[in-house]
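User: Structure please.
Assistant: Input sequence and predicted structure:
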Amino acid sequence: MKNMKILGLAALLMAGAAGAFAAELAVPPGYRAVVVPAEKAELMFIKPGGRLDMMVTFKAIMADERKENVTATLLQNVLVLDTVDKDGVRAVVLALNPNEAQYAMLSLGGNCQVHFSVRGKGDTEMHPMEIASFKRLIRSDADDKPADKEEPARPAK
């Protein structure tokens, strides 16, 4: 039911009738207003006009064929247009270019968990990010290849 409400709000934003709503949100030219579900605790710190990074956690099949939970920073320095916390719907409305919007929607499918980290005021720097995993966190140097030589993970089915 919750996903249906979010999809309904997303459909409203995408519909032609939502043009006034999108203008009200001050969507930058070339960007789209994209609705992404959020946790209540995250919404307490996410504010319109602020910037955030969007991360996704999912189960991946690693190069050695074992499954492991990993987290990837999907989008960085994203402008928050608005937040929604009404009638059981909790979401953020983000300004994304069409390519970023596709990745955001992709992260909502399957067994992915989406999380946000709020950026400090004026922090707009982009950082190259590797996929985080517990194995990388606790590995011993004798057991593993260096992080830059590891094969990439692929999503588990």
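The radius of gyration is 17 Å.
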